[in-house]
Write a structure and sequence with these properties.
Layout (H helix, E strand, L loop, with lengths): L5 E3 L3 H4 L4 H10 L7 E5 L4 E10 L4 E10 L7 E6 L5 H14 L3 E6 L11 H13 L7 E7 H6 L6 E5 L21 E6 L7 H9 L3 E3 L8 H21 L9
Parallel strand pairs: 1-2, 5-6, 5-9, 6-7, 8-9, 8-10
Antiparallel strand pairs: 2-3, 3-4
Length: 252
């Protein structure tokens, strides 16, 4: 498709216009005029090439010229579950960068050592939408907030591989690195604990639920850094697999 500004309109087919917030950006910032063309996504994996058919102070009407599925560039379905930091700015930065890198689902979890017990979703969802548009993706990651860690573990059977990143030594089984267990085209859940790490009891419960303990390296990382590095590990291994499809993949 053409290299055009990208907007988010989840109900474009029904409404044939931009939502009010998106319309204001098109009208005030881009000075949209009838006849201008934009890209629009529904956030569900479809890209639309559109043309402006009408405008007023609050509305930007569109016609659909062409549509096509957007092909995401990672082969699996990847979710990151992470305990949010006390600083809201760091949570926002983390979500923005993870969406830019690329993933399917985000859980903000509550653990024993969590610094933040409640997280409002409205602003975070707007940040996710903005990051999706900025990085020209057509898949809007889903966001679940305030999810107890125990509830997350109840859903681990829905995933092919659950990776539990922690920093504690001397626990069994020993931690491994992602490259030793990564499988392309898998449904993967990556779990990152709070600044105080997962508790020993949480780690033991997760392992009993089938989670694989992993390390992200020798450095002691901040929570938001660990989430981003862990996600980038998945992308790097996936790219290596694309470049060398005949390479033997590790087994579980």
């Amino acid at each position: 498709m053409k290299d055009l500004p990208l907007f988010y309109a989840p109900h474009l087919r029904e409404d044939l216009q931009l939502p009010e917030g998106e319309a204001q950006h098109a009208l005030r910032v881009l000075r949209a005029q009838v006849g201008d063309e934009f890209l629009v996504t529904d956030g569900q994996g479809t890209l639309f090439e559109t043309r402006v058919t009408g405008i007023d102070r609050r509305h930007c009407l569109l016609s659909i010229l062409h549509e096509e599925p957007w092909q995401k560039y990672w082969r699996g379905t990847w979710s990151v579950a992470i305990a949010p930091t006390k600083s809201l700015d760091r949570i926002e930065w983390m979500l923005e960068k993870m969406v830019e890198v690329g993933l399917d689902e985000i859980f903000l979890i509550k653990t024993k050592h969590s610094e933040r017990k409640h997280t409002s979703t409205d602003r975070l969802e707007r940040i996710i939408q903005s990051a999706m548009k900025q990085s020209h993706k057509a898949l809007l990651p889903t966001l679940t907030t305030d999810l107890p860690f125990s509830s997350l573990l109840e859903a681990t059977s829905d995933y092919d591989l659950c990776l539990l990143a922690h920093c504690r030594d001397g626990l069994s089984p020993e931690r491994t690195t992602i490259d030793r267990v990564f499988r392309p085209e898998s449904k993967i859940l990556l779990m990152i604990g709070p600044e105080g790490d997962f508790s020993i009891e949480e780690i033991q419960t997760a392992v009993a639920s089938g989670c694989q303990p992993i390390t992200l390296g020798s450095s002691r990382l901040r929570t938001e850094t660990a989430g981003l590095i862990g996600l980038q590990w998945l992308h790097t291994l996936d790219m290596i697999g694309h470049a060398h499809p005949s390479a033997k993949q590790p087994t579980k």
